[in-house]
Structure formats: C-alpha cells, structure tokens
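Per reviewer request, we include the raw input and output of the structure prediction for the construct analysed in the revised manuscript.
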Amino acid sequence: MTDLTRTRERSDRVRTTVPGRHVSTRRAPKFGGTFRALGRLAYEGAQVSANVVDLGSGDTLVSIDDRIVLPTASIGKVLLLIEVAARLTTRDDSGYGIVDKPPLGLVGQSGVWQHMQAPSLPVVDLAMLVGSSSDNLAINLLLNRVGLDSVRARTEALGLTRTALLDYARDARGPDDAPQLSVGSTAELAALFSMLAREEAVDAATSQRVMGWLSLNSDLSMVASAFGLDPLSHRGPDHSTLLINTTGSDAGVRAEAGALRGRRSAVAYAVTVQFADDSLARRLSVVEAMRAIGQELLEHVH
C-alpha cells in the first residue's frame, strides 16, 4: 500500500505542469533539431517515426510519420504490464502467486533472472524485472500466466489499433513465428504514455502500478541519454526532471517511449528508428539522433 501511495505521488508530479513564462500558448515550438536529426537518418535510408504531445494542453508538438507501423523490439512489454496490473487491481488470481523458473529453454539476451539463483519469484517481481530491465524470461512467464490473447484484447480496449505485442521473446525467429516481438506507431505509443501519466490506462490504480514498474527502467541510452539522470536511480525528481520511460532494442531497431516532466511543462513522446545495422558508425548515428531529440525535449519542459 505504501508503494502504491508513492507511485500515486510520482504520477501526480508527472502530470502536473506549470505554464512556462517564455512559451506561447498559441504556437508550439518547432523542434527543428528533431526534424533535422531524423531527416538525416531518413536520407541515409532509415525509416523514422516520432510523436511528442504536450500533457498539459494535449497539443501535438512533433509528428513525423507517426501513423506508420514499425518494429518496436520489446516496447510492447508495456501492454503486458498493463494487463498484469489490471488483474492485480481486480484481485484476479492470475495476477498473484509464485512463478517457477523453467529448468530448460531459457531466453538469452536481455534480463537478469536467467543469471540469478532464485528458482521462483512472485508475479509482481517478474513485472518489476520486465519494467526495469526488459527481462525476456520474465516477459515469457508473465505471458504464460495471463495469455497473449488477453494482452491483445486489453490492447484493443485501450483503443490501440497499430500497436501490439505479437509474440513471446525468442532468441531466434523461425518461419512459423511472428517476425517481431512487438510493433507500434509512435502516435499510439505517445498516446499510451499520455494515458498512463493521466492515470487513464484502464484506471488510476492500474496506471500507477505500471508507472511504478517503468520508473525502474535502467536503459537511458537513447532519447533519455540527454536528460542527465542516474540510470539506476531516477524514481523521483532530479533537478526538477522526472522521467518514466521504456525502450526497445533489436538488430536494426531502436525505439523509446515515455513521459517527461520539467519545471514548466510535461510531455509524452515516442521515437522509433528502423535502419540497416551494418556498421557501428550507422548504429551510433541513430543513437546520436535520438539523443538530439532528447535535448530538445529537455529544453521544452524546462
């Protein structure tokens, strides 16, 4: 109950905005650097998409091919977390209990539970691992618990038609598997984080739980790299900056979505880049572009 109260306080801080003294209420900032950074990537052959929404006014500040559907790596885990949180809110039995680690078939890549000695964990701890480190093993076991069909139904109930968690996390995808773990449009992903920040994703308690798990996210390597936060400790405001975000990384895919609050305003944002990951230089150019977007977001909210 104490953790839920603290999460509510964080939620209040994210969605509370103070009108900026130097920002016109009639004209949104242009985010010229964002357009240039993503434009350079698009010129080099990447597919880019971005959306930024002001949480106070609801105005769209950035819209770059934000309706197209692109691979988003593991960002679809947010939809899974919403389903788990909703079941906790309604005290559904599937939202509680202890889950055993399977002895075989561990999923590699991201996550820490595969390296831990603990043979079992509570459902809520699995959700914490998903929110903090995109733990693939935890994702798969939570999917076993609630069912992929239930996550899809919840996604539709949230009004999302271009965003979906398609499959379990896999080290390799065969011809009979979904080609991606998740897909989405940045317009819908930014809208989803707007719902979370306003406590409208299912209901207030569900939104608060999901935001609490996501506030532990330790990946600040993309857009959020510009915010100057401690990757391992940023659950509360730091220099009047509060962030709740999630990321997705895969070969040729970098994606991030979140909600950011500063001294004078708050935004929800989403950025996805699909590119030819054929050299370190190309990958670094994508990361640099995403950081440039973060710099403009930080300037806007402060």
